[in-house]
Amino acid sequence: MLPIELFGWILSMILGVIFICSLVALYKEPTSDTEKENTFTPSTISEDKIKERPTVKIY
User: Fold this and answer.
1) Contacts of residue 22, Cβ cutoff 8 Å, sequence gap at least 6
2) What is the pLDDT of residue 11?
3) In angstroms, what CA-CA distances link 2 with 6, 9, 11, 34, 36?
4) What is 16-52 written as a DSSP string?
5) Using the 8-state DSSP alphabet, how is residue 54 labeled?
6) What span, in angstroms and rounded, lies between the C-alpha atoms of 22 and 3?
7) pTM surpassing 0.70?
8) Which residue ranges make up each domain of the chain?
9) pLDDT, tens digit, for every residue of 1-58?
10) Is 29 left (phi over 0), alpha (psi -120 to 50) or beta?
11) Cα–Cα distance between 3 and 11 in angstroms, integer?
């Protein structure tokens, strides 16, 4: 019985470590996406160009 119990404990520890590593990897991935979104700076249109733009009324 000892070899079966030992095998079970070793397998449980290995699977537990893999599970914790996968949680850490999933946690880190969204932060990198958020950082990418924060570093993206959209081009801004000056207010003068907006005022000069002709307006079209849609009925």
Assistant:
1) none
2) 97
3) 6, 11, 14, 49, 51
4) HHHHHHHHHHHHHHHHHHHHHHHH--PPPPPHHHHHH
5) P
6) 28
7) no
8) 1-29
9) 689 999 999 999 999 999 999 998 887 755 555 555 555 555 566 666 666 767 777 7
10) alpha
11) 12
5 in the Ramachandran plot: left (φ > 0), alpha (ψ -120 to 50) or beta? Answer: alpha
How far, in Å, CA of 46 to CA of 49, rounded? 6
What is residue 55's DSSP assignment? P
Angle (CA) 37-28-42 rounded to 5° is 5
d(CA 17, CA 23): 10
